[in-house]
Structure formats: C-alpha cells, structure tokens
## 1
Amino acid sequence: MRAEGRKVVMLTCYDASFAALLDRAGVDVILVGDSLGNVLQGQTSTLPVTMDHMVYHTECVSRGCQRPFIVTDMPFGSYHEGPAQAMRNAARLMAAGAQMVKIEGGAHVVETVHYLVERGVPVCAHIGLTPQSVNQLGGYRVQGRDEDGAARLRAEALALEQAGAALMVMEMVPAGLAAEITASLRTMATIGIGAGADCDGQVLVLHDMLGVYPGRKARFVRNFMDGAASIEDAVARYAAAVRDGSFPAEEHNY
Ligand code: KIV
Ligand code: NA
C-alpha cells in the first residue's frame, strides 16, 4: 500500500462483533491494542495489561473478521527481557490469531525486532509517545519537539526499518517531523496517531473515535459519531477521511 500511495486505515478493536463491523466498514488493519487496559478495564495506564489479556482479546477479534490484517500489542514486560522472551510471547499471540506483533521503543528493541522478523514474526514498531514508558516520560505528552529528541526519533526509525519492522506507529510527534521521517524510509510504512496527515496511514483507539471513552479527549482525536447515522457509518467515515487525507486536520496536529 505504501508503494502504491494508498493510505493504511487502522483502528483498535478488542472483540468479535466490532471486528466484524470494522471488516464491513473497510478497515485495513485492526490493532488489538493494550489500550484495552484503559478503555475496557478502566485502568489509568497500560502497565497492568497481561499476556493472557492480549491472547484472549486476539482470539475474540480473529473469530470476528476475515479481511483485516490483525496486529496485537505485546504488553508491558512481555518482551523487555530480550529476544528469547519476546519470541516465546509473540508465538502465543500469533497462535491466538495475530498476524503481526507491536513493540514499543527505539534503540533498546532493535535487536529483538530483528530476532522476531528473522523467525517469521512480522513486527510493527512504535516510537514517540510510548505509553508503557509513561512513568519515565512524565506524562502523555508530545515527543521530539527539541532538536535532540527529533534526532533520536529519526535515528530510531531508520534502525527499526533496518531491523526489519514492516510498520511503525508514531504517536504524538510533530507533524513536520513525522512527514520527514516517513519520507526518509524505503520499506517500512508509518502509521500516525497525533503525528499529522503525511504518515502512510492512521490509527485511533475505537472508543475515542466513537466518543464512548469517558476520560480526557486528546487533541488528535476526532469523534466520528458526530453526524454519523450508525457506528458502522462512523467507522466508514473515518476510513474515508484517512484515505482522502482530510483526517487528521491541522487542529489535530502538534
Ligand atoms: O494500544 C493502542 O491502542 C495503541 C495505539 C494507540 C497505537 O498502541
Ligand atoms: Na498500545
């Protein structure tokens, strides 16, 4: 899709009924995100989410849909010990129905990404605001604003591409920097969330874009239920807006 210049429409999903709805609405990639800790479990971070939770929700999603490509988050602690632990846990997620796993972080996960890709596990990287590191980052805030931070994100993107990651989420990154990083890559497609319209695709948390999450609404979220006739219509409108480049708009960017 990157080669053809077609935008990748990605959305989180955690159960079979919504997976079927996202399939019908034309979503390309489903992310079984560890955001389920926040939106399903009512936790204040993703840190308490376990491998058992991710396996269970991946099984639910994979029963519900046929066409969308399924990516599952590796939860906090499930890959941090190194490549062998990551492979063992990735294998559980793949057996549950994931077709790719997502790993947060830059330089410290490069070796793990390479190890998994070499062994037949496609990997989605995730840089910028990485919620599993919230206690170190000091909150959910934009990353890569200063020149040091920007240089680090540029270098991490190239290293992750080199390691074999096929997709990379960039979260809460200035739009100009995300565009520059996207243009610098050759094989890895970028997926933005709070990273501007010039990424190769976009992702949002389902409960955010349907306006059902009771917590604070981030700047980069649009409620697609506004003016929609149904949930399926809202998801279809999101897909259309990503494909025609009208979402995200200037007001959603950093
Ligand atoms: O868990 C999640 O939903 C995510 C996306 C916000 C990228 O990681
Ligand atoms: Na996540």
Note: The domain at 8-252 is CATH 3.20.20.60 (TIM Barrel).
## 2
Amino acid sequence: ADGVFLNRQISVLKLLQHLNQPLVDSDLTAYKESFSPLNNLNRYRDAEVVKQYVGLVESGKLLHRDGIFGLFNPEHRQQMIVLFETLYGASDWDTFFKTAVWARDRTNPRQFLYAFSVALLHREDCRGIKLPPQYEITPHVFLTTDVVRKAYQAKMTRTPTVIPMKFTGSANNPEQRVAYFGEDIGLNSHHAHWHMDFPFWWKPEYDGDKDRKGELFFYMHHQAVARFDAERLSNDLPVVQPLEWDKKIVEGFAPGASYENGQEFPMRPDNMQFSDLPWLTVQDMRLYEGRIRDAIASGFVRTAEGKLVSLNNTVGINYLGEVVESSVHSVNPVFYGKLHNDAHVLLSKVTDPKLRYGVPPGVMEHFETATRDPAFFRLHKHVDNIFKLHKDLLPPYDVSELEFPGVKVEAVKVIGTCKASTPNQLITYFDESHIDLGNAVDTATHKQVVDIKAVVSRLNHEPFKYVITVNSKRPVNAIVRIFLAPKYDWFGQKVPLDAARWGVIELDRFPVKLVNGDTVITRSSDQSTVTIPEPKSYPELVNDVERAVRGEVDFVYDKHHRHCGLPHRLLLPKGKPEGMDFKLYVVISDFDKDVVSSEVNVDDLHHISSLGYCGVLDGKIPDGKPMGFPFDRRIPSEELFLTPNMKVVNLVIKNVRQKPVE
Ligand code: CUO
C-alpha cells in the first residue's frame, strides 16, 4: 500500500479510538481548531445539508452524547442522515476527514460512528480502508455487564487480564444450546455490516445503485434462518417457529448487557404478547401484512401512483424485499407499511410498550446486537415465510432451465485437511477468541496501557476442500454452486427434497473453466464466496499499519475488501459429537447464460469476496440467477430435478471437543 493510503488508514483508526471521549491525538485535534464546515461550503455536494448539520450542533438539538442512538428512532435517524450526507457529500478526502474530526466530539458517539462508517464504506476514496471490528470500537454493546465490570477492576489495579465471557442464560433454557450462534460476535458484525452496505434509508439520489438490494435482504436473512435451523438440529432442538402477531413470544431473553451510559438492555420474560405502541398498533401489523399477502396472491404490487407491478418473474422478489423490509425503495410505503422494521421496534419495546418506565431500547433495535435474541430468528422466520409464499407461486424450473447440456458431474468428494480426516466427514470444534477491551475501559489520556481482553468461545471447523470431477463435451465456462442441507429432520425422518430445499445453506459459488473431457476442480473451503476471513483486532490493525508506515512490513491494499460476510469460522453448522448427516449438493450451471452481461469475464471475478450474502458494492452482481437458484422454487419431482450437471453426496459433520491436529 502506498503512503497516501496508509495515512488515511491510520487516521481512521485514530479517529475511532476512545469514541466516548474527546479526541486527544494531536495530529487530529489540530483539524478541530483549523477547520470549519461552514467556512468551506463549496467543498460539499450539498451546502444546505452541511448548514443543517451545523445548525443541529449549534442549537443543541442533536442527540446528547450520553443518549442511546437508535437507528429506528426517526429523529435519531434523521440527524444521522444529515451527518451522513455531509460526510458522503464531501468533495475530497481532506474535506471528508476534517469534517469527521469536527463532528466526532460534537455528536453522539454511536450516531457518529454509524454515519461515519456508512460514508466510509461508500466513498470511492475510502475503498480498501479497514474499519476495526465493531465490537472493539464500542465494546459495551457487545459485552455482558459482568465482563465490563471485571475489565474496570483490572484497569483500576493495572493488571493485564483475560476475562472469560459466557453466553447469556442458563442450562435451564434449551435455547442456550444455540446461543453460541446468535451471540457470535462475528455473526453480529456481519449482520451490522450488511445493513451498513445496504441501508434501508439509502436514497435513490445517492449514487451507487445497490443492485438487487431487496432480493439480498430476503436472501441474506433467509440464509441466516436456514443456518440457525441447522445449528438447532445439531443441538437436538426443533427448527425455529415463526413469530405471529397474535401469539405469545414464547422465548424470553436476558441480554445481561448495558449501554455505555450505564442503562441496562431490557430483559424480556417468557410468553410476552405483542402490544400497541403509542404510534403503532398490532392491528397495523396485521393490516400491512394482509396487504402484502394479497399482493403476493394476486401476483403484483401496487405502487404509490396506482400502477401495478408484476411479481411473477425473477425481479418480483426484489420488489417484495424492499416492500417487506421496508426500505426507502419500497414501491408504496404508505400502503404496505414498514412491516419488518416495525416488528424490530415492537419486539424491542415489548416490555415497556407505553414508554412508562423509560426503559432503553432492546437488542432488537440495533443491527449490531439483534441476532443475540432468539426472537430475531423467529421474526425472520415469519418474514421468510412471506417470501416463501411468493416463491412457491412461481412455476418450478423446468428441465431446460436446470440442465447444462454436455456437462456431467462425475464425482464429488469433500476432504478435510486434518490428520485423522475421513473423506466426506468434516470436523467442527469450539475455539477461543480474544476481544480487545481497550476501548471499553481505557481512558484516552492514560498513557499506561493495560492489556485487558475478553475471551469468547466460537464455533470453528477444520479446513477442507471440495474435489469435483466434471465431464464436458466441449470447453465451456461454468458456475459451481455448492449447498448443504440436513438429511433428517428433528423427528429423525428423512427430509424430502421439496422440503429440504428451503433450508439449504449456501457454502460457495464460483466460476470455473471446463475443458473438453474431464476437469478436476479443487476448491478450498476458505475461498468461499459467502464468508470473510477473521478480522484483525483493533490493536493488531494499528500495529500493522504503523509498521507499514515505518517500512517494516507491507500492508496489503485490497480495493475490494468487504466487512460484510459470514465469519469463515461459521461456514459449517456444528453437527453432532456422534456425527450428523447432511447432503451436499453441487450444481454446475452455464456461466454464459447466467451472467448479467456478456462483458462479465470468468477471469475478472477472482476479487469477489462475500458475494453470496453481501452482493457487490459497485455495479451489478455478475451472477444473474435468482439468489438460491435452483433451490428457491418448488421441486415437484426429485428425479426430474437432478439433471446430470448436479450431484448430491452424503456428508457427515462431527463436533469434537478439541481442535483436531492438522
Ligand atoms: Cu437484519 Cu431484521 O433485518 O435484522
């Protein structure tokens, strides 16, 4: 990486340190005095928006620094958008960064962080810059209160400490068995970043066209639910039941965490019922959902102008995703409401719906924390069922859409790289990961650094590779799509393909060139295009850049770096100690038919990282097939479905106590 980039990268890291306290770094504080947005109005796309933001600051109307920023709170969000537009509209890096420094100490820290992060992720001149992990910038919202308390103790006594963090709940709660998944910090980070890359409040006038954002909303959450169900089956729990507006929310949840200002995240007891909020009733939810269901049944949505838009095609899901989420792109937010977003708020406020007790927002009201609550998956199962209704009304793929004439998958093998590996048997285990708590307790002015970390247990798996032998009658370009599905349901019954298909987990999707005759494709698990590698911890990242500045190491500049993506550790579901049966599906399709434009070249796609669940940041998603193809539609006949370009093999996933020897 060059000096300009390194300078930007280190500036960002410095800016986000100790966000709850005023900046002390002298390199940055210099800007605080020397730069003023109002004196530089010609350096922004929209001077009015800059004036609006400065006006908010000066009038004292901005959310207090000690307040709790909630993205679903319309006022908080509007303020954040004004700051975002100011930062995003800055005409060059210099203006952008100086504005950020100006805003940092004047804005609520998490409100600032959100606006700054989204602006950074979308600015052309910030491509490749790495944000530190969310859970190390604002550790409070990710950590349990007891860990934070212990961290303070360690700080007071200046004792370097490693504090074990347990999953919330107790063994009396069966849901506890899958807490390792919902509470995984990497999963929460992936989810938070997905919503930063595809904000529901993203306006059409911002540039960057957010290709298939509504469909991605469906698919990323659909996969999260499918994965949660596979984890549940791995732990002898039945698949998650959808929430219904009129039924009890059976599972409670106690986050055991506190906001930076000391207020506790509310706990929800078992069997709560949805109730009306002052501005939103449960009846509204039924009404909006009824309209959405009517739209699906009739095969079209009605736009705000009264036009009918057909859903009976491959783009129908995109319209529906925007409507259900509901994003600014919804064709008719007044008529269809904000079903999914409002459900997050209803759940978050369910213990104090009349706002009588000043209870702060629940975990469901922040994308950074939502997946901790089992109700997150129940809500998204409900939402997913709405999408399923639509997909089930589309005609099943016929053979001509499934087959790839002349191409036959001869053999599929999955091989773990551990010493004791058996073919088609993969190993998962739990390992330990450290979270740096420097920003939870350190004071920015306190020079003496005490090493304080939390240690959490995380699901991981042995590295493995797929070996796929394909025979082709001619040299041709292809896309390999790999999926995994549990073989048996909770009752121990074999799952028929038409039921299993909705629960398949996407493991990988990548282009290949097939030669005339046999091609042996070898693909390692860590190349997966649904996952991202483990992010570096905050101090590690700082250290790497500082060393690169001194010329000691090279800091790899990757323009295509993504923060969104399932943590690679979670690629495989846990499985069982005695081994759990899965089916692995390999589908080879015709690259030239699938890609969105003839200009997409097989050789140009290697930079794509977490395309599967996170799409792309610029331009069009190269793979034009509906997400989840070919499992997204009904499969009336297994025999007709499995054309020669597909193959299914049995796979066993075994969870062991200790990391196997590589
Ligand atoms: Cu991601 Cu409900 O959209 O959490």
Note: Residues 191, 195, 221, 340, 344, 367, 370, 380 surround CU2-O2 cluster (CB under 6 Å).
